[in-house]
Amino acid sequence: MPLSCGARCGTRLGGLLNKVTIRDVAELARVSQSSVSNYFHKPHKLSEATRERIRQAVDALGFVPNDAARMLRTGVSPVVGYLAFELASATTPEIAAAIEQRVSARGMYLLMANDTGSRQREREYLQLFEQQRVGGIIISPVGDVEPELDRLRRRGIASVLSARRAVSPGQASVSTDHVAGSRLAVRHLIELGRRKIGFVASSLDLQQVADRQRGALSVIETVPDASLEIISVPERSVQAGIACADRLAARDPADRPDALFCANDLLAIGVIQSFVAGGRVRIPQDIAVVGYDDIEFAQSTVVPLTSVRTPHARLGAAAADLLIDEIAALREPGKAGAERRVPQIEFSPELVVRASTTGA
After folding, report:
1. Under the phi-then-psi rule, with left for phi > 0, alpha for psi from -120 to 50, and beta for the rest, what region is 131?
2. How many whole angstroms separate alpha carbon 258 and alpha carbon 238?
3. Does residue 257 contact residue 197 with C-beta atoms inside 8 Å?
4. What is the distance between the alpha carbons of residues 178 and 209, in angstroms, rounded to a whole number?
């Protein structure tokens, strides 16, 4: 049954004589003020019936929670910023979903931004997050942001690097060992007898891509008759993979690589689509293909893709948990400007072997 607030509601909404408070909502919904607070910040603690009563009261009174007042009261903004360099990446949504799940369980909210790979845009978003006084920042960086994050930390804004290991011992980070991951991929190809390996990647300005190339080279250098050809593409997308494969298929067979290690799965999926559709290159008989990330679609391509699996959801959850810990630490007296060693978590990838390299 809809709630009725009678003349008092009309006075508040029509004349705006008094500001609506959380107490007003609680009285109209016939619940405690803590229940109204939980409705906005910890709704899972309330029954569906209680949530509905509070919702009706909020709508009737036109109540808007004052997060600025909450920040003054608790000393912590309820908003966490997540800055990703590539929202179109197949891995970013899974990471973001894990972060959102963790922060929402703490009654906080996630504000997500995309710098599109631009260092200038990255700096602008960090400035925006600072102006908004977010409680903390999780960032998958393009450039070297650690000096800026250090400055923000001294101003009381915690941060965690995501997908890249921090250099400074005072900077928290959650990452994957991409050097080790690429070694797994290239060793697998070498063990299959492949010797002319192509590394398909976009700009090496991105540390994760540079690490994958470094790991690949470290294996090639130990095999006297092996070589690594760097095959540049403009972006890490399916379309870029298709265009790359088209160019390779047009080469004389003797000039082609006998294996491709792609910097991510989207590139590898595009390569497979092109080779299969064109019919001139067989997978894996002529060219074996390995991807990176092991996204959901890797196993369902026309030739199931061998890929290096990285734990996206675990990485996102760990980044959120670490950020919450860092926010709490900065609330302790003297910690905001203190030099201290913080956790730098690094996950180990694993190789998932499928038909694109073994044919089985």
Report:
1. alpha
2. 20
3. yes
4. 8
Rounded CA-CA distance 241/231 in Å is 11
Kindly list the distances between the CA atom of residue 138 and the CA atoms of 5, 80, 113, 152, in Å, as whole numbers in the listed order.
43, 8, 11, 12
Dihedral sign for Cα atoms in the order 272, 358, 261, 93:
positive
Query: What Å distances lie between residue 87 and 83, 91, 160, 230, 360, CA to CA?
Result: 9, 9, 18, 25, 34
* Backbone angles phi and psi of 218, in degrees to 5: -65, -30
Confidence of residue 274 (pLDDT cuts 50, 70, 90): very high
Report which of residues 119 and 88 the model is more confident about.
Answer: 119
* Nearest-angstrom CA–CA distance, 347 and 352: 16
pLDDT digits (tens, 9 = 90+) for 275-295: 999 999 999 999 999 999 999
> Tokens 């190339």 sit at which residue?
213
Number of residues that this document lists for the chain:
360
Can you tell me the distance from the alpha carbon of 182 to that of 309, in angstroms, rounded to the nearest whole number? 11
> Residues 6 or more apart from 293 whose CB is under 8 A from it?
90, 91, 264, 265, 307, 308, 309, 310, 312
Measured CA to CA, the distance from residue 309 to residue 293 in angstroms comes to 5
